[in-house]
Design brief:
3 strands, alpha+beta, 3 helices, 3-stranded mixed sheet, 2 domains, single chain
Length: 108
Amino acid sequence: MFNSSQNSEQPEDSVSCYFSSYIDSNGELLFSCGWGEDPVDLKNFAILMHGMLSGENRESVMQDIKKQCELSGDTEDFKEFQAFFEKLNSISNPSEDDIVVRPLSVNL
């Protein structure tokens, strides 16, 4: 379930739009989002959300997370994160070659 968080800090006024999310100690996903008053701010928010939800920014975000882990000496954490992330991704995005119904199970 998605909920808007009232307690998240909002970015500086110079930011066109933002989306911030976290999972609380109960495992509930909370988020906060916003955009400025200029019409371009709403378009920028749509671009931000499209990039996040379509997976378009996946590689650059994964590379940034990897660099951050390397700089802090947490390369094993990144490997564990990446393996679990890929497992989740394969579950939610099955291959087109996956058989949904076995041919022998079809009654004609």
